[in-house]
Specification:
The protein is an alpha/beta fold. It folds into two domains: about 170 residues, Rossmann fold, CATH 3.40.50; about 110 residues, N-(1-d-carboxylethyl)-l-norvaline Dehydrogenase, domain 2 (Orthogonal Bundle). The protein is built from twelve helices and eight strands. Strands 3-2-1-4-5-6-7-8 form an eight-stranded mixed beta sheet, sandwiched between helices. The chain is elongated and about 65 Å long. The N and C termini lie far apart (about 65 Å).
């Protein structure tokens, strides 16, 4: 397929991820126009075949498909405001961080200016953009997604439509992202314990990966328990985790390592035991998370 047969794309926002997105479109043969507030990030992409929109309005006008990759929805609105009159009849795809409410507001703004909207998220790091197993998911009108799916697959082979609601990607981005910092903090705590003994953090990477693979393997079972609301046949109980609190505190004191970041989780386990969930699956903690804690 020649470049003339491929959908022209404009990419607005050339940070690390935006640059990777533009590069993937160029590599896939799409006529690609780029714009960034600071023009120094444009030249390497122009050298690879991109066109430089001298203004954001010129960049938007160049293509029927506009992909933005800025930090937030507010930043996206600010960047596109001078080009609002150029949006009519085009498709706007946002790939930025933000809340479901922000995505709904973005869709309303785009619609008010005559543009169709898909809210998306890239679930990988910039070097993975364009690879066959890189995941991106989108929320918005299915017909719009179907029209541009082949083009969007240039960014990653695992391209998913979540549903017609415009905020679904932001919702899943929030939900899926929750475990990241706790998992990293757990790894850092483990590294601190090893380093206190003069051992390299790298020595536990292999074992940590195996442990994370085990966690991944039980997620379908835990999700099923939550969806059914039945925690009576546990792989591991709330009580098992509750009993581990004392062991973890003892190991940290022996380290010595600061584990104060764990205290809210310990409090949740203590609350679960107090509510009679000791012998239930650890997935029963979901029931506490979905309702406010009682006032102190």
């Amino acid at each position: 397929m020649t470049q003339e047969n491929r959908t022209a794309v404009t990419v607005v926002g050339l940070g690390l991820m935006g640059t990777a997105l533009a590069g993937a479109f160029i590599a896939a043969g799409h006529p690609t126009t780029v714009w960034n507030r600071s023009a120094d990030k444009v030249a390497p992409l122009v050298d690879r075949g991109a066109s430089h929109g001298r203004t954001v309005a010129e960049a938007v006008r160049a293509s029927p498909l506009l992909v933005t990759c800025l930090s937030t929805y507010d930043a996206t609105l600010q960047a596109l405001a001078p080009a609002a009159s150029e949006l009519r009849g085009r498709t706007l795809v946002t790939l930025n961080s933000g809340t479901p409410a922000g995505a709904r507001g973005m869709q309303s703004w785009a619609s008010a200016h005559g543009a169709r909207f898909l809210g998306g998220a890239v679930k990988n790091v910039p070097p993975a953009v364009g690879l066959p197993d890189t995941l991106l998911y989108y929320g918005g009108d299915r017909a719009v997604f179907d029209e541009h799916e082949a083009t969007l697959r240039a960014l990653g082979g695992d391209t998913v439509h979540l549903g017609d609601a415009p905020d679904l990607a932001a919702l899943y981005e929030t939900a899926v992202g929750v475990p990241l910092l706790p998992a990293l903090l757990g790894f850092f705590e483990g590294a601190a314990l090893l380093r206190e003994r003069g051992l390299d953090a790298g020595s536990m990477v292999r074992y940590s990966v195996k442990w994370l693979e085990m966690i991944a393997s039980v997620l379908p079972r835990l999700a099923d328990e939550i969806d059914r609301g039945d925690y009576s046949d546990p792989l591991s109980t709330v009580g098992t985790f509750h009993e581990g609190i004392a062991h973890d505190r003892e190991a940290a004191a022996d380290g010595p390592v600061d584990i104060a970041w764990r205290e809210p989780m310990n409090g949740l386990l203590e609350r679960a035991v107090a509510e009679g969930l000791r012998d239930q699956s650890v997935a029963a903690l979901y029931e506490l998370l979905r309702k406010p804690a009682p006032a102190a």
